[in-house]
Amino acid sequence: MSDFTARYLKDYRPSEFTINTIDLTFELDDHKTIVTSEMSVTKKSTTANKLTLDGEQLKLIAVFYNNQALAPSDYQLNDDSLTLSIIDCESTIKIITEIDPVNNTSLEGLFKSGGAFCTQCEAEGFRRITYYLDRPDVMARFTTKVIADKTLYPFLLSNGNKVSSGTLDGNFHYVTWEDPFPKPSYLFAVVAGDFDLLTDSYVTSSGRDVRLEIFVDKGNKDKAHHAMASLKHSMRWDEDTFGLEYDLDIYMIVAVDFFNMGAMENKGLNVFNSKFVLADKETATDTDYFNIEAVIAHEYFHNWTGNRVTCRDWFQLSLKEGLTVFRDQQFSADMHSAAVTRIQNVRVLRSQQFAEDAGPMSHPIRPEKVIEMNNFYTLTVYEKGAEVIRMLHTLVGQEQFKQGIDLYFKRFDGQAVTCEDFINAMADAASIDLTLFKRWYSQSGTPLLTVEENFDEQSKEYTLLVKQTNHPTKDQQVKAALHIPIAIELISECGTKAKLLELKSNSEQWHFNDFKTKPIVGFLAGFSAPVKVNFTQSNNDLATIMTKADDEFLRWDAGQKLYVDTIAKLIADENYQIPLQLIDILAVQLKSDSDLALIAEQFTLPNFHELVEQFKPVNPIVLLNAIEQLKTFIAQGLQDEFLAIYKKHADKIYQNHADAIGERAIKNMALSYLMTLSSYHDIAEQQYANSDNMTDSLASLNSAATNGIAAFDTMMASFEKRWSRTALVMDKWFSLQAAYKGNDVFERLTKLSQHPLFSLKNPNRARSLIGAFTHSNPRFFHCSTGKGYQFLADQICKLNDINPQIASRLITSLIQFKDFDKNRQELMKQQLVRISTLSSLSKDLKEKLDAALS
Ligand code: ZN
């Protein structure tokens, strides 16, 4: 029986003990791995006499206290802990446990992924390996000896530096690793397997030679070069930008197929979902390449923001994640188009984070109450957390921000600290008062800014009035005003002026006197704060911003606003005649000299999820019809232009550089419009047949799926035949099937879930079918019979026993039922109630169901 009790930030107490060193020995075996742990433990206060160690799903074999074997009556053993009496100030404790990696389908702790042993300890997985003080503020020096069969597992890896190795009787061998940096248990890792190894080296700015190693499944070495290049770029960028250098002699990355998340920053030994390592032009899209680089950077940047300075407790998760996401976003912006990178960050916030923040699991970026920590690796902690860091960066500027980072490391290197410690370092370095700003850490919900403007023709004074509203959220009824940096541009005949306003109370106004006629304001340049904006601007004003704003984000956002306004009208009246003026405005944009990737973004309509956020509660089918009407209208209005763009870029040979990526982006954007018109349906088939790269193949298949075109099945059959042995490509195949817009989709889903290559035990595969259906096929997920909800709930019930973390991720779209019409709310709730009656409900699901149904 799981323990469903909540833990609270306010109850944090330091441990009464420190663990100085831990020596681990792993005797790896499929079902009976023996883990021996020897710890040296110090009392922090003389009155401490009971040490309670965390442990779950372990078989305890033996315990020794100062080399004396203990009898069961000497300790207290529970489902989730082991309590020992501690007599001496300095003691040694030795614990032997047995674990079963093959049956560990939760993929937390030690498990087998493909043929390799592998660990995932964050947040609280180490307690599934041995009894320990499994909390981030307990930092010890780890030595790890790994013993395994030398034929099956030629590579035995752990954190730090290799200090010895040798062979043992019976075809076994061992390797011992020593990590010189004290670390919390969540950063521990062990990997054992047979891999192809790509090596390289990197000389740091102070001249340290670092060996770089990427381990991939046999046969995949050629697909690791992009990851290696990304790693080297990240190392250079962190030196150039923040003066941060790598600190060990070796940096290892292992790619595995079975992994719950993207990747993990274990000290010196990152473990990655193979999706974020492997790439070549035939199997990976331009987006995959971009994401691989970003995730490699993210984990690398954690070596400082996360590992050298870590979190005091898990409520502080955003200390490392918000900051590290901000760092990886800045890196991506420097490596590619800054505007396109920013637009993509904003789309994620608007389509997913805002919804989370308004739903039953709403929480501040520093949560105050947690039942299952794995439920808090959220868009809020990561993405909104990064926005909060970005606002600090906007307020103090890059120079001071860098000084704040310097001070943070000067004060806290080697320690486990809080979000407050970080902000204080920033405030001190930049000499600014961030007292009010700190509220972003404790307040949940997305602020709404309401904007009014006035121009006094007499005095020529322009006034901007901004009001913030912070609506109550499920977790928090009472809200206070936040400190919000608002970047604006004032566009007038005398040019464009940029200003940074700071809103610090419920409403404020600003006066500007330098205009002859009313200026047009571009509001929230660069998306300077994670807020919603309510500001009525005419189509003419928006069109002006689209061409005249200096900030490319503002130009893009004005276009998005035009789309949203049109969709609003179509929702209110399906016979609404969209004015042709829209086509004129868009035609100008299509011919602008912006880079092609940015134009492609400008023509990408806000997605379904983003629009749900705008119009909730909404009937999803009415919304989808409105989106399709708008898309078809634009396609008809600009079909000659789209066809010309398509033809211009159709037959180019694949190249992997920014211009070529932009050409593919705009070409596939044009394709997606043309495909809404039936007369162009064969283009997708031709493109599929002629494509020499995955970006183009996938774009053609996608448009075939989402427009339900006849050739879809033939194309998919050929794709399956070609790629049936390439797991990451088959994930795409399953996702395309799940996104297919045809009335037989439920029969298809049933067949797919019985497909020989489908397995709920593989998280990527589960996500590729179930996640893709719920996310990319809203028309059928939300079909009025409730069949879509039922399909999802059926899968969640199965995943509850196999992999609670994945089950808990997938339930997101059901718990946000309030976003839809009453009938659908009822249908979704029925499924939630059904799931809640499962006999062995996991903590992960229980926490979300209770929040949603209360
Ligand atoms: Zn991270």
Automatic annotation (TrEMBL):
Highest taxon, organism lineage: Bacteria
GO molecular function, one term: zinc ion binding
InterPro entries, alphabetized: Aminopeptidase_N-like_N, Aminopeptidase_N-like_N_sf, PepN_Ig-like_sf, Peptidase_M1, Peptidase_M1_dom, Peptidase_M1_pepN, Peptidase_M1_pepN_C, Peptidase_M1_pepN_C_sf
Record key words, sorted: Aminopeptidase, Hydrolase, Metal-binding, Metalloprotease, Protease, Zinc
Function: Aminopeptidase N is involved in the degradation of intracellular peptides generated by protein breakdown during normal growth as well as in response to nutrient starvation.
Cited NCBIfam families: pepN_proteo
Name of protein: Aminopeptidase N
Organism, as annotated: Thalassotalea piscium
